[in-house]
Amino acid sequence: MSTNFDSYLAVAKKLDSDDPLKKFRKLFYFPKINGKTSFYFTGNSLGLQPIATKKFINEELSDWANLGVEGHLHGKRPWLFYHKFSKNALAKLVGAKPTEVVAMNQLTVNLHLMLISFYKPSAQRFKIITEAGAFSSDQYAFESQLKLHNINPKEALIELKPRAGENNLHTEDIEKAISENKENLALVIFGAVQYYTGQFFNIKKITVAAHKAGALAGFDLAHAIGNVPMQLHKDQVDFAVWCSYKYLNAGPGGVAGAFVHENHFKNRNLKRLAGWWGHAEKERFQMKEQFVPMQGVDGWQLSNFPVLSGAALLASLEIFKMAEIKKLREKSLLLTGFLEFLLLEIDPDQENFKILTPNDPQQRGCQLSIFTKKNGRQIFKKITHAGVIADWREPGVIRVAPVPLYNSFEEVFRFAEIVKRELSK
Known about the structure:
By secondary structure, the chain is α/β, with parallel strands linked by helices. The chain has two domains: about 5-50 and about 325-425, Aspartate Aminotransferase, domain 1 (Alpha-Beta Complex); about 55-320, Aspartate Aminotransferase, domain 2 (3-Layer(aba) Sandwich), CATH 3.40.640. Helix content is about 35%, strand content about 15%. The protein has 13 helices and 15 strands. It has helices at about 10-20, 55-65, 70-75, 85-95, 105-120, 135-150, 155, 170-180, 205-210, 305-325, 325-345, 375-385, 410-425; strands at about 30-35, 35, 40, 100-105, 125-130, 155-160, 185-190, 215-220, 240, 255-260, 355, 370, 390, 390-395, 395-400. The strands form four sheets. It has a seven-stranded mixed beta sheet, sandwiched between helices. The protein has a four-stranded antiparallel beta sheet with strand order 11-12-15-14. The chain has a two-stranded antiparallel ribbon with strand order 1-2. It is globular.
């Protein structure tokens, strides 16, 4: 361990002083522990509340109080069109056209809706490739969709594991598995950023491989949106889904979203579960029989928009518009890199812990998953008592996410300092 560890505090302060995004930190509330502002590193689980959230929600409450049902047409942000207000910001975050993205429902609901449309098994093509250890909601959705088609998940679901002794998948191994199963493959779907390890998969290469094999490609962006830049339209991704309460800071259970590539908009053979909010807008209130979908991804909507939840999303997206995802990524690379550097200074021989997240900055977002080799639970409890809000995952992993929108370099140093102190005990 470096004998000059304390000198890195000056480095952190200099980085903070030069940070062009430092002003955004003041736009969020930070929880307190024992009366002191916490070191909050769980934006990968629940993002902090923007101070403006109350204002946005109160505006809708005011319109509801003063206008009643007339708020649908005469509110400050007319409720009838609420799903449109987030389109431009969401499109920039995922690299799409506004017509290809929509805020709606919850993530798993959206995943099921997309699987109804884009998982089209036949007697020959019925297999799904995903990463092993995908988030539970994804696993349950895949299993239940397969059973819906009377397909045995054990025969159809291919879960790719890292090589022996490794923690992350190689892109070439994913491509190889896709090619080897090309005769029977219907769908390739990955979490764009793996929730447990923090690995950022190569969306473009996976999509190209899937299409070459005659399959479709989809992604769960729960840990990617607001974290890493993406180009879903350019990369020809078929569909994607996400939640908004992690890096998008839209609050617990915030309204989720979906992407469908415009390549599929004119495909009348796509099956879908229809709902009245997805019906052609000009005819929606005529209550006619026979579903006529709206143009674009909006045609996948089911129910009218949850305005109060959507207001919280808009409050956060206003900040993203100002900060810009490209600039956030630039800071994120420095911030996460600084954390990695400090951790390796503390334990260079990895006697106490090992970082599971790829050391290639291009293969990760802002999360580092730290596998503790001994006394992990005790260490986690101690750093929590010291003012750190991080995340514990069995077996023995502490997930830490320094979010560029509101975390500072000094906070990263202080976290590493606490870890160093606890390990020395």
